[in-house]
Design goal:
Elements: H1 2-13, E1 21-22, E2 28-31, H2 41-60, H3 65-69, H4 79-98, E3 102-103, H5 112-130, H6 135-139, E4 142-147, E5 150-155, H7 156-180, E6 189-190, E7 195-196
Parallel strand pairs: 3-4
Antiparallel strand pairs: 1-2, 4-5, 6-7
Helix pairs in contact: 1-5, 2-5, 2-7, 4-5, 4-7
Amino acid sequence: MKYLLTALITVCFLNPTTSQTMSKDTLPYFEIGDYPEDFGPGSMLARYVDGLGYRYHWATEGLGENDLAYRPTPEASSSFETLEHVYGLSKTILNLARNTPNTRGPKEEMTFEDLRSATLLNFQLASEYFNGKTAEQMARTKLKFERDGKVNEMDLWLAINGQMSDALYHVGQLVSFRRTTGNPMHPGVSVFRGKTSF
């Protein structure tokens, strides 16, 4: 809860970029805003995160208890457990964008609403950090994990085919799961254009 409050306060004091539009309930990624002004590496990665955020916003909009409890097999993760995993990935993506280490802590017990809000805010902040960065700045951005006082650094490329692609993969699972429970994603969502029509 402390983490969510910090993220909300941070968002309130940041100037919004043109890469997001806030929804009626103030959560990011109701739609994706204008394109970045340049095709630099930071802006390209920011747009990737924006696409992920938009898909996540609508994959999780209007989920009920039946949807959250769904698991395709007894051994598989439920939709709620998948949301917890995507939240963890969103924290790693945000730490990557900030160029700060990931540390292990106790599992956070969060409601669906808190998970959804925190994940969307993490994506928004990560996009804002990436946006406009040069190739030189991106080359100095490392995926970092701190364990027992030691920081292990890995190339940014691993985060793209690792955590970022993994998050997108799991958002697709959530879309599929909610179809199975009879609660499909809103038909007015265009993931191609990043726009929503009702």
